[in-house]
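Hey team,

Sharing the DUF4040 domain-containing protein run so nobody has to redo it. Sequence (331 residues) first:
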Amino acid sequence: MPTFVLINVVLLAVLIATAVAITRLRALYAAAMLAALFSLVTASLFVLLDAVDVAFTEAAVGVGISTVLLLGVLALTRSREAVTPRRRRLPGLVVVVLTGAVLGWASTDLPEFGAADSPVQRHPVTETYLRDSQEDIGIPNTVTSVLASYRGLDTLGELVVVFTAGLAVLSLLGPLARPDQIRPAPDLHLADYRVIRVVTGTLMPLILLFALYVLFHGDYGPGGGFQAGVIFASGFVLYGLVFGLDRAERVVPRRALWLLISLGLLLYAGLGLTTMALGGSFLDYDLLDPGHPEEGQHIGILLVETAIGITVAAVMTTIFFGFASRGGVRR
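Structure output:
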Protein backbone atom coordinates (compact mmCIF):
# COMPACT_ATOMS: atom_id res chain seq x y z
CA MET A 1 0.00 0.00 0.00
CA PRO A 2 1.45 3.43 -0.95
CA THR A 3 2.48 5.66 1.95
CA PHE A 4 0.04 8.40 0.91
CA VAL A 5 -2.92 6.00 0.95
CA LEU A 6 -1.76 4.50 4.25
CA ILE A 7 -1.65 7.94 5.90
CA ASN A 8 -5.14 8.73 4.62
CA VAL A 9 -6.48 5.41 5.92
CA VAL A 10 -4.93 6.01 9.35
CA LEU A 11 -6.37 9.53 9.58
CA LEU A 12 -9.77 8.25 8.48
CA ALA A 13 -9.61 5.60 11.21
CA VAL A 14 -8.78 8.30 13.76
CA LEU A 15 -11.76 10.35 12.56
CA ILE A 16 -14.11 7.37 12.90
CA ALA A 17 -12.77 6.49 16.36
CA THR A 18 -13.10 10.11 17.49
CA ALA A 19 -16.66 10.38 16.18
CA VAL A 20 -17.68 7.15 17.94
CA ALA A 21 -16.05 8.34 21.18
CA ILE A 22 -17.94 11.65 21.00
CA THR A 23 -21.28 9.87 20.58
CA ARG A 24 -20.61 7.73 23.67
CA LEU A 25 -19.42 10.52 25.93
CA ARG A 26 -21.68 12.20 28.46
CA ALA A 27 -19.01 14.62 29.69
CA LEU A 28 -19.54 17.60 27.42
CA TYR A 29 -16.18 19.25 28.10
CA ALA A 30 -14.41 16.09 26.94
CA ALA A 31 -16.71 15.92 23.92
CA ALA A 32 -15.81 19.52 23.01
CA MET A 33 -12.09 18.72 23.14
CA LEU A 34 -12.58 15.60 21.01
CA ALA A 35 -14.53 17.72 18.52
CA ALA A 36 -11.45 19.96 18.31
CA LEU A 37 -9.34 16.86 17.67
CA PHE A 38 -11.77 15.84 14.93
CA SER A 39 -11.34 19.23 13.25
CA LEU A 40 -7.55 19.02 13.57
CA VAL A 41 -7.41 15.60 11.89
CA THR A 42 -9.80 16.86 9.19
CA ALA A 43 -7.46 19.80 8.57
CA SER A 44 -4.59 17.32 8.20
CA LEU A 45 -6.56 15.42 5.58
CA PHE A 46 -7.19 18.65 3.67
CA VAL A 47 -3.44 19.33 3.67
CA LEU A 48 -2.79 15.89 2.20
CA LEU A 49 -5.35 16.66 -0.51
CA ASP A 50 -3.51 19.92 -1.32
CA ALA A 51 -6.47 22.00 -0.10
CA VAL A 52 -4.24 24.06 2.17
CA ASP A 53 -6.53 27.11 2.28
CA VAL A 54 -9.43 24.93 3.42
CA ALA A 55 -7.17 23.23 5.97
CA PHE A 56 -6.11 26.62 7.30
CA THR A 57 -9.73 27.65 7.76
CA GLU A 58 -10.68 24.34 9.40
CA ALA A 59 -7.80 24.62 11.85
CA ALA A 60 -8.46 28.25 12.75
CA VAL A 61 -12.25 27.96 13.04
CA GLY A 62 -12.83 24.34 14.04
CA VAL A 63 -9.89 23.83 16.38
CA GLY A 64 -9.50 27.38 17.62
CA ILE A 65 -12.37 29.77 18.05
CA SER A 66 -15.20 27.21 17.87
CA THR A 67 -13.70 25.21 20.75
CA VAL A 68 -13.44 28.32 22.89
CA LEU A 69 -17.03 29.28 22.16
CA LEU A 70 -18.23 25.74 22.93
CA LEU A 71 -16.46 25.88 26.27
CA GLY A 72 -18.07 29.27 26.87
CA VAL A 73 -21.50 27.78 26.20
CA LEU A 74 -20.82 24.90 28.60
CA ALA A 75 -19.77 27.37 31.28
CA LEU A 76 -23.30 28.80 31.10
CA THR A 77 -25.11 25.45 31.08
CA ARG A 78 -23.95 22.12 32.50
CA SER A 79 -21.01 19.86 31.92
CA ARG A 80 -22.85 16.55 31.49
CA GLU A 81 -25.42 15.51 28.94
CA ALA A 82 -28.81 14.40 30.21
CA VAL A 83 -29.54 10.70 29.80
CA THR A 84 -31.76 10.13 26.76
CA PRO A 85 -34.37 7.35 27.04
CA ARG A 86 -33.67 4.41 24.76
CA ARG A 87 -36.96 4.80 22.90
CA ARG A 88 -35.87 8.27 21.78
CA ARG A 89 -32.51 7.04 20.50
CA LEU A 90 -33.98 4.77 17.84
CA PRO A 91 -35.27 7.54 15.49
CA GLY A 92 -31.90 9.26 15.58
CA LEU A 93 -30.11 5.97 14.88
CA VAL A 94 -32.40 5.30 11.91
CA VAL A 95 -31.76 8.76 10.45
CA VAL A 96 -27.98 8.39 10.85
CA VAL A 97 -27.93 4.94 9.25
CA LEU A 98 -30.13 5.99 6.33
CA THR A 99 -28.12 9.16 5.74
CA GLY A 100 -24.86 7.21 5.84
CA ALA A 101 -26.25 4.64 3.41
CA VAL A 102 -27.36 7.35 0.96
CA LEU A 103 -23.98 9.09 1.12
CA GLY A 104 -22.17 5.78 0.68
CA TRP A 105 -24.30 4.91 -2.32
CA ALA A 106 -23.78 8.37 -3.84
CA SER A 107 -20.01 8.09 -3.41
CA THR A 108 -19.93 5.16 -5.84
CA ASP A 109 -20.71 7.62 -8.63
CA LEU A 110 -17.61 9.68 -7.90
CA PRO A 111 -14.49 9.31 -10.07
CA GLU A 112 -11.52 7.32 -8.83
CA PHE A 113 -9.46 9.04 -6.16
CA GLY A 114 -6.80 11.18 -7.87
CA ALA A 115 -7.93 10.25 -11.38
CA ALA A 116 -6.42 12.52 -14.04
CA ASP A 117 -9.49 12.20 -16.28
CA SER A 118 -12.05 13.25 -13.67
CA PRO A 119 -14.58 15.92 -14.71
CA VAL A 120 -12.96 18.56 -12.55
CA GLN A 121 -9.68 18.02 -14.41
CA ARG A 122 -11.22 18.01 -17.90
CA HIS A 123 -13.70 20.88 -17.50
CA PRO A 124 -12.74 24.03 -19.46
CA VAL A 125 -13.21 26.28 -16.44
CA THR A 126 -10.26 24.53 -14.79
CA GLU A 127 -7.92 26.00 -17.39
CA THR A 128 -9.46 29.43 -16.84
CA TYR A 129 -8.91 29.34 -13.13
CA LEU A 130 -5.48 27.72 -13.07
CA ARG A 131 -3.85 29.44 -16.05
CA ASP A 132 -5.81 32.43 -17.30
CA SER A 133 -6.17 33.78 -13.75
CA GLN A 134 -2.42 34.36 -13.65
CA GLU A 135 -2.83 36.84 -16.52
CA ASP A 136 -6.24 38.26 -15.55
CA ILE A 137 -5.59 38.69 -11.82
CA GLY A 138 -1.83 38.43 -11.60
CA ILE A 139 -1.48 36.75 -8.21
CA PRO A 140 -0.02 33.28 -7.55
CA ASN A 141 -2.75 31.97 -5.23
CA THR A 142 -5.59 30.80 -7.48
CA VAL A 143 -7.90 30.27 -4.50
CA THR A 144 -7.68 33.95 -3.60
CA SER A 145 -8.27 34.91 -7.25
CA VAL A 146 -11.46 32.86 -7.32
CA LEU A 147 -12.83 33.90 -3.94
CA ALA A 148 -11.98 37.59 -3.96
CA SER A 149 -12.21 38.44 -7.66
CA TYR A 150 -14.00 35.96 -9.95
CA ARG A 151 -16.71 35.24 -7.39
CA GLY A 152 -16.31 38.36 -5.26
CA LEU A 153 -20.09 38.90 -5.14
CA ASP A 154 -20.57 35.42 -3.68
CA THR A 155 -17.90 36.11 -1.06
CA LEU A 156 -19.74 39.32 -0.19
CA GLY A 157 -22.81 37.16 0.42
CA GLU A 158 -20.78 34.95 2.74
CA LEU A 159 -19.67 38.01 4.68
CA VAL A 160 -23.32 39.08 4.97
CA VAL A 161 -24.07 35.61 6.39
CA VAL A 162 -21.30 36.02 8.99
CA PHE A 163 -22.61 39.49 9.85
CA THR A 164 -26.21 38.28 10.18
CA ALA A 165 -25.26 35.18 12.18
CA GLY A 166 -23.19 37.30 14.55
CA LEU A 167 -26.06 39.69 15.15
CA ALA A 168 -28.43 36.75 15.71
CA VAL A 169 -26.15 35.17 18.32
CA LEU A 170 -25.61 38.50 20.06
CA SER A 171 -29.37 39.10 20.11
CA LEU A 172 -29.88 35.74 21.81
CA LEU A 173 -27.18 36.51 24.35
CA GLY A 174 -28.53 39.97 25.06
CA PRO A 175 -26.93 43.14 23.64
CA LEU A 176 -24.47 43.72 26.46
CA ALA A 177 -25.48 41.19 29.14
CA ARG A 178 -27.46 43.00 31.83
CA PRO A 179 -25.76 43.15 35.27
CA ASP A 180 -28.34 40.87 36.87
CA GLN A 181 -27.36 38.16 34.39
CA ILE A 182 -23.68 38.20 35.33
CA ARG A 183 -22.58 35.39 37.58
CA PRO A 184 -20.04 35.86 40.34
CA ALA A 185 -16.47 35.76 39.08
CA PRO A 186 -14.75 32.41 39.63
CA ASP A 187 -12.16 31.98 42.35
CA LEU A 188 -9.57 30.77 39.82
CA HIS A 189 -7.83 33.59 37.95
CA LEU A 190 -5.38 32.56 35.26
CA ALA A 191 -3.55 35.89 35.55
CA ASP A 192 -2.49 34.90 39.08
CA TYR A 193 -0.15 32.35 37.55
CA ARG A 194 3.02 34.08 36.44
CA VAL A 195 3.91 31.54 33.75
CA ILE A 196 0.50 31.84 32.08
CA ARG A 197 0.60 35.63 32.34
CA VAL A 198 4.10 35.94 30.87
CA VAL A 199 3.48 33.40 28.10
CA THR A 200 0.22 35.11 27.11
CA GLY A 201 1.86 38.53 27.10
CA THR A 202 4.64 37.16 24.92
CA LEU A 203 2.33 35.37 22.50
CA MET A 204 -0.14 38.23 21.99
CA PRO A 205 2.00 40.37 19.64
CA LEU A 206 3.12 37.22 17.80
CA ILE A 207 -0.50 36.11 17.30
CA LEU A 208 -1.52 39.52 15.98
CA LEU A 209 1.58 39.70 13.76
CA PHE A 210 0.80 36.25 12.36
CA ALA A 211 -2.78 37.37 11.68
CA LEU A 212 -1.45 40.33 9.68
CA TYR A 213 0.87 37.98 7.79
CA VAL A 214 -2.04 35.67 6.94
CA LEU A 215 -4.10 38.65 5.80
CA PHE A 216 -1.50 40.29 3.57
CA HIS A 217 0.10 37.05 2.35
CA GLY A 218 -3.17 35.58 1.08
CA ASP A 219 -2.28 36.64 -2.46
CA TYR A 220 0.81 34.44 -2.48
CA GLY A 221 -0.01 31.49 -0.21
CA PRO A 222 -2.67 30.00 2.07
CA GLY A 223 -4.55 32.64 4.02
CA GLY A 224 -6.91 35.54 3.60
CA GLY A 225 -9.44 37.62 5.46
CA PHE A 226 -11.51 34.83 7.00
CA GLN A 227 -8.50 33.05 8.48
CA ALA A 228 -6.85 36.28 9.61
CA GLY A 229 -10.04 37.49 11.27
CA VAL A 230 -10.35 34.29 13.30
CA ILE A 231 -6.68 34.50 14.35
CA PHE A 232 -7.15 38.11 15.44
CA ALA A 233 -10.19 37.08 17.47
CA SER A 234 -8.29 34.16 19.01
CA GLY A 235 -5.65 36.56 20.29
CA PHE A 236 -8.22 38.80 21.96
CA VAL A 237 -10.05 35.76 23.35
CA LEU A 238 -6.80 34.46 24.88
CA TYR A 239 -6.16 37.86 26.42
CA GLY A 240 -9.68 37.96 27.88
CA LEU A 241 -9.45 34.43 29.29
CA VAL A 242 -6.17 35.15 31.07
CA PHE A 243 -6.44 38.78 32.14
CA GLY A 244 -10.22 39.04 32.49
CA LEU A 245 -12.98 40.69 30.52
CA ASP A 246 -12.53 44.15 32.05
CA ARG A 247 -8.96 44.48 30.82
CA ALA A 248 -9.86 42.97 27.45
CA GLU A 249 -12.62 45.56 27.02
CA ARG A 250 -10.13 48.33 27.72
CA VAL A 251 -7.98 47.00 24.87
CA VAL A 252 -10.89 46.51 22.44
CA PRO A 253 -13.99 48.39 23.70
CA ARG A 254 -17.35 46.89 22.82
CA ARG A 255 -18.54 50.04 21.09
CA ALA A 256 -15.53 49.85 18.79
CA LEU A 257 -16.30 46.19 18.06
CA TRP A 258 -19.92 47.00 17.17
CA LEU A 259 -18.67 49.65 14.74
CA LEU A 260 -16.09 47.29 13.24
CA ILE A 261 -18.72 44.59 12.63
CA SER A 262 -20.48 46.95 10.23
CA LEU A 263 -17.34 48.67 8.95
CA GLY A 264 -15.98 45.60 7.18
CA LEU A 265 -19.26 44.91 5.40
CA LEU A 266 -19.64 48.57 4.42
CA LEU A 267 -16.07 48.67 3.11
CA TYR A 268 -16.68 45.62 0.94
CA ALA A 269 -19.99 46.89 -0.46
CA GLY A 270 -18.59 50.41 -0.79
CA LEU A 271 -15.75 49.10 -2.94
CA GLY A 272 -18.29 47.59 -5.33
CA LEU A 273 -20.24 50.84 -5.51
CA THR A 274 -17.00 52.72 -6.14
CA THR A 275 -16.15 50.57 -9.17
CA MET A 276 -19.67 51.16 -10.48
CA ALA A 277 -19.24 54.91 -10.02
CA LEU A 278 -16.03 54.67 -12.06
CA GLY A 279 -18.04 53.28 -14.96
CA GLY A 280 -17.50 49.55 -14.51
CA SER A 281 -19.42 46.65 -13.05
CA PHE A 282 -19.81 45.80 -9.38
CA LEU A 283 -16.42 44.80 -7.86
CA ASP A 284 -14.55 45.35 -11.14
CA TYR A 285 -11.15 45.98 -9.60
CA ASP A 286 -9.46 46.80 -12.93
CA LEU A 287 -10.90 50.32 -12.75
CA LEU A 288 -9.03 51.07 -9.52
CA ASP A 289 -5.91 51.45 -11.66
CA PRO A 290 -7.02 51.62 -15.35
CA GLY A 291 -3.48 51.85 -16.66
CA HIS A 292 -2.40 48.72 -14.82
CA PRO A 293 -5.37 46.33 -14.37
CA GLU A 294 -3.27 43.83 -12.42
CA GLU A 295 -2.41 46.51 -9.86
CA GLY A 296 -6.10 47.34 -9.62
CA GLN A 297 -6.80 43.67 -8.90
CA HIS A 298 -4.17 43.68 -6.17
CA ILE A 299 -5.66 46.78 -4.55
CA GLY A 300 -9.23 45.47 -4.76
CA ILE A 301 -8.39 42.03 -3.38
CA LEU A 302 -6.40 43.57 -0.51
CA LEU A 303 -9.31 45.85 0.41
CA VAL A 304 -11.76 42.94 0.21
CA GLU A 305 -9.61 40.69 2.40
CA THR A 306 -9.16 43.52 4.91
CA ALA A 307 -12.90 44.09 5.05
CA ILE A 308 -13.53 40.39 5.63
CA GLY A 309 -10.90 40.24 8.36
CA ILE A 310 -12.37 43.25 10.17
CA THR A 311 -15.93 41.88 10.28
CA VAL A 312 -14.94 38.30 11.15
CA ALA A 313 -12.60 39.37 13.95
CA ALA A 314 -15.14 41.79 15.40
CA VAL A 315 -18.01 39.27 15.26
CA MET A 316 -16.01 36.49 16.91
CA THR A 317 -14.60 38.74 19.62
CA THR A 318 -17.99 40.29 20.39
CA ILE A 319 -19.60 36.85 20.70
CA PHE A 320 -16.91 35.81 23.18
CA PHE A 321 -17.46 38.99 25.16
CA GLY A 322 -21.18 38.18 25.25
CA PHE A 323 -20.53 34.69 26.64
CA ALA A 324 -17.90 35.96 29.09
CA SER A 325 -20.22 38.69 30.42
CA ARG A 326 -22.92 36.17 31.23
CA GLY A 327 -20.40 33.80 32.82
CA GLY A 328 -18.62 36.36 34.94
CA VAL A 329 -15.12 36.18 33.46
CA ARG A 330 -14.01 39.44 35.10
CA ARG A 331 -11.24 40.88 37.20
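Residues 1-82 form a domain with the Four Helix Bundle (Hemerythrin (Met), subunit A) fold (CATH 1.20.120.1200).

Ping me if you want the raw files.
A.
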